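Everyone, study these two lines:
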Amino acid sequence: MARQQVEQALAITRSGLTETRQALQSLRASPLEGLGLALAIEELARSAAEQAGLELQLSLPSEQITFAPPVAQALYRIAQEAIRNVVRHARARTLRVGLALGPAVTITIADDGAGFAGAEAPQPGHYGLVGMRERAELLGGSLTIESRPQIDTTVTVSFTGGGV
């Protein structure tokens, strides 16, 4: 009886591990593949703006820049979450997305929406801002959030370092 329960527990554990690996793989299944960071962010922004009926203002480099996969993935996911927040919460008319290359890689996502108070304080049950900050810090980068209630919000991630 005990042996049967152990075998069943192992089978459930293996199944859970397989599902977790598949979920992680699909998270990594990358819109970045074949596009590069700038084009992937452009595609993401265009799609979100179209679906939400937002005016889109893009400022992206024309040249293809290669990043180490973990860096590109983290920067893309930060941009994805920031854009998702604009669509879900901002009640904006305009979405501005920029990618600047220089001594640092800087991605800026801004809107002219509702804004919010306490931009730096994580809200209970909401992990998007915390997750973006954690991703940026794991890269050795920084994330800033500037928000003015009833006016706008700007999320900026900057990364200086290897992997570019």
Notes: The mean pLDDT is 85. The chain has two domains: 1-30, 32-159.
